[in-house]
Amino acid sequence: MAKTEQSNPSAEALVLSLRAMGYDLSTAIADLIDNSISAHASIIDINFSWNGGSPWIMVSDDGEGMNESELKRAMKPGSRSPLETRDKGDLGRFGLGLKTASWSQCMKMSVLSKKNGSLHNRCWDLRHVIQTDAWELLLELPDKTEKLMQKNLLKYDSGTVVLWEDLDRIIGDFVGDDDDTMKNQFQEKLVNKVKQHLQMVFHRYLSGKNPIKINVGPYVCEGWDPFLTKHESTEEIVSERLKDSNIEITPFILPHSSKMTEQEKKEAQGPNGWALQQGFYVYRQKRMIIGGGYLDLDLKSMDQHRLCRIKVDITNDLDHEWRVDVKKATASPPLRYRSDLNRIAESTRDKSSRRYRKRSSFSTPSGNKSASQQDVWTRKRIGTKYLYKINRKGPAIEFMREQFGISKSNLNDLLFLIERTVPHRSITVDNNDLNDSTVEIPEEHVKPSSSLILVAEKYVQQLIDKGKSNADAVDLATKGVFTIGGAGLRIQLENKFLEGQS
Predict the structure, then answer these.
(1) What totals of helices (H) and strands (E) does the chain contain, helices first?
(2) Which CATH number do you get for residue 143?
(3) pLDDT tens digits along 234-253
């Protein structure tokens, strides 16, 4: 038998190291909610109070609760081996989440649990651990603390309450001298950032069959669906299954901006904006692990791919392969799946690009001739680049040239100057800084001039004289070069040529 000796870690050194696991307030609370869901809770409440400058946060649920031995085990760091086989609905893995999530935010974490009519409590006070350099749990709670926690359990037959006090990490983020300023920052962080994060991470638990209810203070969380599955213009592509059905991949193409209301666009962009929310959404037992981006597949987020979102479902027995971290906030796909993920991403990005560009109709050599003649711009591929030119052959361009008495050579010189001086780089940079660069410019800023309206009316009349119906003539004009007049010009033309028609 090998000779050995004990080498137990210093409680002070290790607990301070575990505080630096990289949680923020949102991911820490989400980790506690994982435990509530694993305990089959249907209602989860996140309550908080500034408490006169000694704030606290409390997470309570109506789950199964814990008896004395179960609570003692749950409070132990590394309470379960990550190699243990987990129940299908278990969102845990390392036996660290309750402790590391709590310690990352506070110096004192108390737990009160109710099961079979009995109440049991334990408390980690890190100041006591540091002072004694010992892994010692407190077995008694102050009366005021216990009453506060019991209040949340009175309405349930069973459940668990976790209370965070001495919130040194949270208060350290605030800037301000007066109490009201600090209180407002505390409430804003809880209500806005945490609520928004929970609505994203747990959106599949918040909707569908037997939804759970999560409350942040007086506010009810409503699931944020990144795939807009209920929108009639969302395209859901056929799912693929990998590795004996343990991985399911479902790509989605979101609706074009023109198919969404301003409110829908605001909601669809998500907490992080269009650019960061495109890409893969990895779920472990319906719980979101990754919310956007392209994992580490060497694919960059591009504006034209903003409508690409890909749902990836994995089971909790794939944690090791996907390198899911303790916080359940990062994952990396195994090598053998990368080619499939890359193929699916490229295909979905290509579809996204086509839908995103749809609004700007470009003619192509194989395109419909009559349609291409109406296009304002043409696009020609040269190697890996594209050349964009104004369509000189469009009938509306020719009509405008004649109306304003411009020679073909002068017109060509003018259009050539415009083509060569379009500020491509500035347009790209400016629009990449926006969450939604496809938002229409308000009509009051792009009102058509009286001379443009007059020329457009003459063009429509010419089409009518050639046998087009009034409606077709207006439609052709406003889908061709006269798109520059926007909705204002179309309304003018409709009022003149379509008023009184059925």
Answers:
(1) 19, 15
(2) 3.30.565.10
(3) 999 989 988 666 889 999 99
